[in-house]
Amino acid sequence: MKTFLSVLTVLAAIVAFWYAACVPMNIKGVLDTAERGGAEVMPATSKARRDMGTFGLVAGNTFAIAQTWEQDRPRLPAPHQVVTELWKTTVMKKLTSKRSLVYHAQVTLKATLMGFVIGTGLGVLLAVGIVHSRVMDMSVMPWAIVSQTIPIIALAPMIIVVLYSIGVQGILPKAIISAYLSFFPVVVGMVKGLRSPDAMQLDLLKTYSANTSQGFWKLRLPSSMPYLFTSLKIGIAASLLGAIVGELPTGAVSGLGARLLAGSYYGQTVQIWSALFAAAILAGLLVALLELIEKIVLKRMGMQQ
Amino acid sequence: ADDVKLQLKWVTQAQFAGYYVALDKGFYSEEDLDVTILPGGPDIAPTQVIAGGGADVTVEWMPAALAAREKGLPLVNIAQPYKSSGMQLTCWNDTGIAGPEDLPNRTLGVWFFGNEFPFMSWMSKLGISTEAKGEMGVEVLKQGFNVDPLLQRQADCISTMTYNEYGQVLDAGVSPDELITFKYEDQGVATLEDGLYVLEENLDDPAFVDKMERFVRASMKGWKYAESNPDEAAEIVLDNDASGAQTEHHQQRMMREVAKLTAGSNGALDVADYERTVKTLLEGGSSPVITKTPEGAWTHIISDAALK
Amino acid sequence: MTLVFLAVLVWCLGWWLNSRLANGASADTRAVKLLVPMIFGVTVLLVWELLVRGLAVSMVILPAPSLIAERFAASLPILWKDLAQTFLKGALSGYIIGCGAALLMAVAVDRSDFLRRGLLPVGNFVAALPIVGTAPILVMWFGFDWQSKAAVVVVMVFFPMLVNTVAGLRETSAMQRDLMQTYAASYWQSFFKLRLPAALPFIFNGLKISTTLALVGAIVAEFFGSPTVGMGFRISTSVGQLALDMVWAEIVMAALAGSFFYGAIALIEKSLTFWHPSQRG
Amino acid sequence: MNTQTTTQADAPQAHASERAPEAVVEAKNLDLVFPTNDGPVQALKDVNLTINKGDFVSFIGPSGCGKTTFLRVMAALEHPTGGSITVNGMTPDEARKQRAYGYVFQAAGLYPWRTIAKNIKLPLEIMGYSKAEQDKRVEQVMELVELSGFGGKYPWQLSGGMQQRASIARALAFDADILLMDEPFGALDEIVRDHLNEQLLKLWARTNKTIGFVTHSIPEAVYLSTKIVVMSPRPGRITDVIESTLPRERPLDIRDSQEFIDIAHRVREGLRAGHGDD
Amino acid sequence: MNTQTTTQADAPQAHASERAPEAVVEAKNLDLVFPTNDGPVQALKDVNLTINKGDFVSFIGPSGCGKTTFLRVMAALEHPTGGSITVNGMTPDEARKQRAYGYVFQAAGLYPWRTIAKNIKLPLEIMGYSKAEQDKRVEQVMELVELSGFGGKYPWQLSGGMQQRASIARALAFDADILLMDEPFGALDEIVRDHLNEQLLKLWARTNKTIGFVTHSIPEAVYLSTKIVVMSPRPGRITDVIESTLPRERPLDIRDSQEFIDIAHRVREGLRAGHGDD
Ligand SMILES: Nc1ncnc2c1ncn2[C@@H]1O[C@H](COP(=O)(O)OP(=O)(O)OP(=O)(O)O)[C@@H](O)[C@H]1O
Ligand SMILES: Nc1ncnc2c1ncn2[C@@H]1O[C@H](COP(=O)(O)OP(=O)(O)OP(=O)(O)O)[C@@H](O)[C@H]1O
Ligand SMILES: Cc1ncc(C[n+]2csc(CCO)c2C)c(N)n1
Ligand SMILES: [Mg+2]
Ligand SMILES: [Mg+2]
User: Domain containing A191 — which CATH number?
Assistant: First the structure.
């Protein structure tokens, strides 16, 4: 409840700031339109306005302020424009329509989930290998880090083409790009988690002469749980980003990535923003779902007080 | 039916109306073809896709195709539905630009990703450096996907296509007399756009050649239908746009403009146009796209057979 | 086919060599710790080279490492200019601004329970905005040069850094805080003497994550508009020209710069958080 | 069980005749309930206690009876859910602001990023002692707890007992009026313990500090204290308060005196009763 | 100092005449050096010790003298840098593989995601006891350490002393030949301690386990042990090994006997000598 109130206040502050920011951001566009419409603008030509500070423009043309929140192609769309667009493209459209964000979100979601499963599965396996094998630890870990310094957006088209040339197409290439982004946080988190038992806890098992698999199931895995969930939450957000990036070199025909791109292509800022928000909301929902599972699991395990 | 995969150069839009019309009107199935149209995008190099076996035939601009050929990817032009170039440079009138001689010391938006070659040739012909702003140089920006750099006045001029970006500038509320445009056709540096290209080795296969004949025939039928029924063609394009981002108004206008560019072509490559393109590219200044006259970069076998 | 067979052989050989080294007597020496990943990397490169040649993979799909190396060596001046533009100007300045702002914000958030509760969920939301969408917007706002790349980096690194720092500042044990209470230490005293040192491992976690984000972010942003220099610019133009060797040369450069950056931060971390169990090893 | 009320009521008066006692801590009907998810835990119930200036009060009782909790209430680290408590006539919170407390926790709780010497220096830095004074005091207390020479080591390089001694040194380094110690000598052997017991008594006599001291050792409680508080668990309450009749000057061999043995016996009986309770 | 060699050399023979002793642990010239960043720390130096089957051996000495380290060497948790040690005629590592050890650590070290009962069950699961047997044994040892009824609680819901008792129960739940206990009763009050001491002696008598026991309490060491090992620090070494002459049957009041007091005196002297050393 308290959280809710705080979030609400912060949101209100952000929205207020956002509306205020719209004024200087959009004033030039508004004045250009107004000038073309024959209105009296100060200064009169677009060229002169270009060299003026935005706040000076606002001060000189107070009549235009209201219009900065209603522009067609604003530099910064006003909150209500984004919300309206979101509303129009989710609730007001048939779910199967190509213009429905829900439809596009669902396309992206499929690739995201598939990539997430592949990525986290691989990440966990790799982490287990790294914790149990010195060779893996010493040779793979540095390269896992290097792999993340490679700009995926440059690699994505090539991944798609290479997979294409060996006959893999459809959702899988996108999922692989998504997995590429999500495996790393899981590896790092799980390695940390699997190594989190302290010396005494490990020594205890040694005195029982427990074997490696017992050590894994009875000590390492349970103590890695909080780390696992933290990295899963980062991982799913990364998966979503990966799926969106993966949509671009497959022709960006559908999915949130396609919406983002199309919006960008036609300078439809409102559409970009609403697709952006849809992506963030989707990520939020996925993370919230994981959080719920985390709560249940940790409670069952007695790790949450 | 024979499968054909067509890779487009850009996203689904009226620029490719002929193919969508042929698909939708059943021209392809009449020829016993099962055609899949793969949309392109900013992150897709059609030449790379065809090299990887992802497509049988691709829509590409000739400079990029010839460049790929020199890089060791033997692409061959089998048909040329676009007769003339739609590329132009669009500037604000109020910046004082009246002719090409006013371009130095300006900031220009240019498309890269294989589309920069005509611009480079033009600049080299004008003797303008693209390295830095100055008396004899311009500042070049890698333009993104849209016309914002012009609208936001981050650039004095940007590249536009007659059928697409130029319309977007007008849609933003700008009137044509606020702008001045330099068509590449008028500047004598036009290069061929939107031809159909296949891998050379495939042409040794009679079955493939036969397939392509039928494909070109049906595509041209689609193009001619689209030219004469622009609104219907635009509608078909809209139906095929899976992203749901295109608007009817924009596609209808695009179709009309595109029709002007395809009007002069029956599908066969005009060798004079080809040679003019090669000449332009060879003159491409310090780092020309191609360094020697290409051999075997086109063939009339298919268009001849298709159009007889 | 023999080349493919050779590739398999090289792989097995490399792995065997590493097993010997990693489980050997001198496994903890600095040399071996460097050698093992090196051998792994060389093995991967060899296998790549052999496979590409053995399977006759087209150079426009995947160039062989030898070709990439050749291109790399031949294009050093261009690579350096691109690195300066993208890494030094874009990524680094964005990294410093973003991480610095996040640190300050974290302190503010940590002081006020209200802000923490209200800002963190909103922050998590903003962090989930996909860069592919934010980059074009920021290019539109901040222009084509490195400033917009820095802005993208700021947006990318801000929240991972904020979340980590806030978590770190709350990491102290109850007893450690109680001790400060019995001294009636002021907020800033307990901040500098207890919470900041205790938070360091987390702060470095955030800093390390941010290094990889920063470079990738700057490169990606260049796809959406840039001057005619920069790693992202070079990559996207080269792909259009099918100059895949150049693309890979830039990727190698990015990986080198990124790894170096990461390594530098990790080194600082080691010297500042030597006391933490994870560093005592 | 009702020894409690009588003893407590008498005690202050008995003392009063000797010298005017000045109450430092006064707890009245103190209650403390921890809300936990499987029901509330009554850690302290109806606790009444007066501690006078210069008292050395030991708390003894089975584990879980609330000794730590009561110490924490005195130091304003925990807030009672019922009753009242004053320290030097103020609330514990105000007293804490005046830096009235030195606290030794049940576990050492040294900061791992500081060396032993720097750990001991911590409160001195916070309270703004001069550099020279800091160094002098660190030197002194390290000697007192026999850790000279270990100043440059990090906590994890020391054995458990050495860490505990460092944490005692940390609490002794500055001049707190009230010293609260939670099983400070638990991890130490008898010799060191005897030595530290002696040192602590000397320090107490010299500085006239008021000391609250939790221990599990009956002889230690009897040897050190002017007042022994016996507690029993579930709910945590005081079952007996024993005023020591031993003199303030206490050589180690006082532990063989009949008086000592009698008091120890009474404490043991009280403890046993507490254990029988549950 | 030279009591060490004589006592040790004599001891096995002296015993041998009573009943045939069977050496369980034999340490010869044991050295252990920890490499740390400010130079090596000699934790054990030239340690010689024989522990016979059924012995109850206590280790006592100032903190940091190497008691924990020696226990860890016996349990193969630490490897000596010099000398040799055998357990049941094998290396400690081999003995560990045969599950010869029950170990109680200096801190409780319970797994926070397991309830008390499940914590105690852990070794039984690992060693493959049947479900029914597991439950029976958990029941038994929980009663032994007076924790019945707390089986369903999680560790953080218990006070420090209760956690320590749970960890003792965990080590008693399975049939290890050798029980190694590192200050198991340090956090408990005297009453519980007395009770657990008695219980431990009974268990020892019944099962004929060999027990290694670290304590800081002289009476506890004397009351429990057949052999008391006195150690001194820097470097950690054995200064005295005292064979107890007390009978195996030991009622609590044996602590008032003269024999008891004499042994305790000798231990105290040994300890004091170790302290004087540094
Ligand atoms: N934070 C807490 N939340 C819930 N219960 C608590 C908390 N702290 C202490 N308790 C409970 O309060 C009671 C008193 O605890 P306290 O730590 O004061 O005991 P103690 O006398 O110090 O025991 P010990 O000798 O074992 O240290 C115990 O039953 C304990 O379980
Ligand atoms: N991991 C380690 N690294 C370095 N030095 C260590 C380590 N463990 C122990 N020591 C050192 O070895 C010596 C013996 O330590 P040990 O823990 O055996 O003492 P102890 O007799 O058990 O003391 P206590 O009674 O305080 O538990 C000490 O000086 C300690 O500082
Ligand atoms: C990154 C990027 N590269 C190239 C183009 C240019 N382009 C490719 S196809 C085509 C025809 C018009 O739609 C145009 C203009 C672009 N827009 N964005
Ligand atoms: Mg306590
Ligand atoms: Mg120890």
Answer: 1.10.3720.10
Mean pLDDT value across chain C? 86
- Shortest Cα distance from C151 to chain D (angstroms)? 35
Residues in E closer than 8 angstroms to A203, CB to CB, are: 72, 77, 103, 105
The first and second tokens of residue B95, run together, are 């910046």
Kindly state whether residue A212 falls inside one of the protein's structural domains. yes
**Residue B142 in contact with ligand 3 by CB distance below 6 A:** no
pLDDT (tens digit, 9 = 90+) per residue, D58-107? 999 887 788 989 999 998 888 999 999 999 888 888 888 888 888 888 77
Residue A65 and residue A144 share a domain: no
Total number of domains in chain A? 2
d(CA C132, CA C137): 9
| The CA-based dihedral angle spanning residues D12, D18, D22, D28, taken in that order and rounded to the nearest 10 degrees | 0
Q: Which residues neighbour E81 within 8 Å (Cβ) at sequence distance 6 or greater?
A: E31, E32, E33
Chain B residues within 8 A of C224 when measuring between CB atoms: 144-145
Distance CA B101, CA B116 (A): 20
Between the CA of B258 and the centroid of ligand 3 the distance, in Å, is 15
Give me the mean pLDDT over the D34-55 stretch: 85
Residue A87: inside a domain: no
Domain that holds residue A256: 101-300
Same domain, A277 and A191: yes
Tokens representing D169 are 């040194």
Tell me the residue ranges of DSSP E strands in chain D: 23-36, 39-52, 56-60, 82-87, 101-104, 178-182, 210-214, 227-232, 237-243
- DSSP of D247-277: -S---GGGGGSHHHHHHHHHHHHHHHHHHHH
CB of B15 closer than 6 A to ligand 3? Answer: yes
* Residues bordering ligand 5, an ion, CB closer than 5 Å: E 68
The answer on A283 and A237 residing in a single domain is yes
Q: What is the pLDDT of residues A172-213, one digit of tens each?
A: 888 998 999 888 888 888 888 888 887 778 888 888 888 888
- CA-based nearest residue to B149, from B123, B130, B168: B168
Is the CB–ligand 1 distance for residue D73 below 6 Å? Answer: no
pLDDT band at A304 (very low <50, low <70, confident <90, very high): low
Q: Quick one: A165 and A280 in the same domain?
A: yes
Using the structure block, give the residue that is written with the tokens 């050997």. C24
Residue A59 included in any domain: yes
Assign a CATH topology to domain C72-279.
Answer: MetI-like fold (1.10.3720)
If one residue of B161, B164, B241 were mutated to test the ligand 3 pocket, choosing by the most ligand atoms within 8 A of its CB, it would be B161
ipTM field: 0.81
Q: Does C168 touch chain A (CB under 8 A)?
A: no
**Residue A91: inside a domain:** no
State which residue of chain B sits closest to A50, comparing Cα positions: B153
Domains of chain E: 22-100+177-278 (3.40.50.300), 111-175 (no CATH)
> For D65, which residue in chain E has the nearest alpha carbon?
E159
Chains meeting C at 3+ CB pairs closer than 8 A?
A, B, D
